[in-house]
Amino acid sequence: MKEIRWGIIGCGDVTEVKSGPAFHKVNHSRLVAVMRRDGTMAADYAKRHQVPKWFDDATQLINDPEVNAIYIATPPLQHEAYTIEALKAGKPVYVEKPMTLDAEAAQRMTDVANKLNVKLCVAHYRRAQPMFLKVKELLATNIIGDIRLVSLKMLQQPNPSLIAKTASNWRINPAISGGGLFHDLAPHQLDLMTYYFGAVKNAIGIATRQQENTKVDDLVVGNILFENGVVFSGNWCFSVAPQDEADLCIIYGSKGHINFPMFGNKITVTTNQTTDEYTFEPLQHVQQPMIEKVVDYFLNKGQNPCSGEDALITMKLMDEFTRK
Is residue 137 in some structural domain? Predict the structure, then answer.
C-alpha cells in the first residue's frame, strides 16, 4: 500500500475531535468511509467531516474495495467481532482501547491477527504523545536515580468531565464496557506503566461497588511488581466529592521524583531540593501522533506502536485487579 484509506466503524463522539480529523491530516492517510448503525447520524458525520462514503452496516464498510484499513471506535462489546471480521477480510485494524471486554477476548483477537498475518494496533495513544515520551526520556537519563515506587491516583466524582459525553452512558453497563469507568480510564495508565517499566512479575487487586445506583465496581486498587523490581500502586475511585478529585502519577526514585497527570500538560521533576517543570501545548487531536505511527506501520515504514500482545498485558492486569 502507498496510502492508507481508512474506514471508521463507530463514528461517535470520541471520533469527532480526538481521532477522526487526524486521519485526513496525517501524511499518506485519508478517511474515505464511516459507519454507524444510525444511518442518519453516519450521513451527518460524513457531511461535516468531508468523508466520501457512509454506511449503516459494518460488513459493507469492511468489504468496500476503497477501504484498506479499519479503525474500530465502537464500545468495547463490539471490538472483538468487528476486529476479527476485518482481519479475515485482510484489512489491518486500529482498535480503540480498552482492546475489548476482557483478556480472553483480547487473546482471541491477537491470535487471529497472528494466524492470518494481518496487522493489528491498539489505540493506547499516550505512548506517542510528546509529554509521555518526555517522561520515558527522563527515566532513561536516570535523573531520579533507581526507580523505587510508582503511586497513581485517579479520583473522580460520578460522571467525571474526563469522559466523552455520549447519548447513552454505556460506560457504566458492564455488558457493553467490560467494567465501568475503571475499564475506560485505567487502560491509559496501565499501558504507560508497562511501556515504562517492562514485564510484569506479579499483580493483585481489590475491586468493589460502593454506590448503590451502579452495576459496576467504582473503587479499584491495584498493585504490580515488575520484573525489574519497580512496584506500582494504583487507586481508582469514581465516587469522591468534587473537591477531592485527583489525577496524579508520581514516580519515586533514589534521587527524587517525577510527577504528572494523565489528563494534563505538565511534568514536574524534583531532585536534591531542585524542581524543574516541563509544560506541553495541548494537542488538537490527541490521537494524531499515534495515528502517524500506525500509518507508518501499516505502510511498512515503522514498528507496531502498540500490538495486540502489548494491549493484552493491560487487559490481564485489569482482569487481575477486578478478579474477573
Answer: yes
